[in-house]
LacI family transcriptional regulator (Deinococcus phoenicis), 686 residues
Amino acid sequence: MSQSVSSRQPVTLAEVAREAGVSPSTVSRILNGTAQVKAAKVAQVKAAIEKLGYKPNAFARSLATGASGSVGVLTQDIASPFYGDALGGIESGLMGSGYSPLIISGHWRTDDEEHAIELFMSRRVEALIVLGGHLPEHELRQLAQQLPVAILGRRVDLPSAGSISLALDNQRAAYDVVNYLLDRGHRRIGHLSGPRDHADALARLAGYRQALEDRGFPFQPGLVVQGDFHEPSGLIGTQQLVAQHPDMTAIFSANDQMAYGARLALYRMGLRVPEDMSLVGFDDLPGSAYTTPPLTSVRQPMAEMGHWLARFVVAQLTGQEITPFQPQLELRLRESVAPRRLP
Amino acid sequence: MSQSVSSRQPVTLAEVAREAGVSPSTVSRILNGTAQVKAAKVAQVKAAIEKLGYKPNAFARSLATGASGSVGVLTQDIASPFYGDALGGIESGLMGSGYSPLIISGHWRTDDEEHAIELFMSRRVEALIVLGGHLPEHELRQLAQQLPVAILGRRVDLPSAGSISLALDNQRAAYDVVNYLLDRGHRRIGHLSGPRDHADALARLAGYRQALEDRGFPFQPGLVVQGDFHEPSGLIGTQQLVAQHPDMTAIFSANDQMAYGARLALYRMGLRVPEDMSLVGFDDLPGSAYTTPPLTSVRQPMAEMGHWLARFVVAQLTGQEITPFQPQLELRLRESVAPRRLP
DNA sequence: CTGTTAGCGCGTTCAA
DNA sequence: TTGAACGCGCTAACAG
């Protein structure tokens, strides 16, 4: 019945109008439900649309209305399981809102991030969701004056109402982890830390240190090895830690990926987890519930946060209210920690 | 010096022209390098752009030129480590080409995928990259008549030059895996298969079966348990397999995630890998090199494939040549397989 | 309820 | 080398 010749040139609204014998505005009204139109014409127009295979041109529409219907999402690594969860949450939060995400990766490189912002602005995104990254705060603040900005994983002061930054108390979570270990009798606890220029990594290190000191155990720099948040650095760091501290009974890794590296290093050295060495990670990656043994880790509700942030910006855009949300870090107790065996 | 008041309304090219005391066309020419413009005016215009904080409106430009500069990328799950790698490759393949990706997830649901396509068309993407999914072939073919289409992970006949589908020989790889196991003396090999409606899963099962039969071992349906490509199904399937087949000495999982589940099930049952049970996965996820023991798996060069596909569509769009690419599946031998111990 | 008229911001003729 | 005028496809204001 309805056959559209695969024409090279897309069909326009005007052509539909001509085909249906009505004016362009009428077609537009039907498309957008802007006004009542007689049923007969509606039918004609719908038939014409079907026959011609008409697809509205989003650019023309955006140009005319001044609304792009898209929100920019700046992530750091499109393949990251960590940010991936947040992206999934954002997608679901945007679903049905009429807005669609425009996702670009910044690769933790400021100039990549700047390019992304430029692309967002030239594409006239109506709001921005930023996952981590290194964009200078003043730039974020300036953006927040132009459109709703929602930031995940960084604490940024956004004076503008309509914008927000959602960050978790990494230091507190790390503090809790170390106390948990201390409570189980561990005294010499190694720490695989993250990059020095990464705020979360620093916060976790600070929590580690503070917990120790609050309990009266001096902080020993030698028990901290710096990694880069990837598996190999965890593996190497662990080898080093074990070699230098034979009496170490637990390792707290600043993220799960490095904990995986640590796990393998221990396996190679013939050390059992948790009997010989307790291990705690951070992030609770999907795979962490299936390592052997399942890894005790700190869960960050990335998907929920992403979802809420998406709903937040939509609420700003549509002038709705949104119930506040206080995400919580949660220590997922699994099987990679055991009480210290007395010597 | 250059202060742009954070005006609500974006600056337009016309305003820049007025500020610089030239005509809009001149500004346009400078922006696009379309023609020679006197140095003095160039300076004035650049100053005006700077002063006003002008950002070109991509919609208006697209409307005028008829080119959107974007390529649609249909993935299935934005948080999937598997497709994530491909997305990363696509990003890098597009980098510097002037095109930017518009990424939407189809969630393996045909109607979500249809919506994504609609959004792509209304956003006038100039090419399409499709990662897996369930879109009917005829629809893909029809799309391929309108624009370059590159498909990953499905073998689809695209008569149109300018389009392509890149798929790996999953059956062959599975065949090789099982032969590898057979060569190591394993005779009762279990298989954790994937969803019945998933072409790759079926191909892997077929390879498993064919390898067995080609070597003179009858295919036993009881040794196959169907999963859903996620960890829990691998765990449960393995428990079931082990309970029903105490003489089984190896498990071939149709993907790594299920293999992780299997690994944990074996751990819970006190079975060692690889001493008591050999285990092989498929996909070679980033984490698979760090499981204990590291998992032998089939690597799919997702990032490379994504990269090449991106370059392919860009080549189509710009009328360049591109060197062909034949991706290869590769069995990554690690430590989760051991020769069968004689009883 | 519907058609006509003006733009939306930009690129691109066509003259000058 | 530059400007004026027109059009890309669509929505919105204004009549009728």
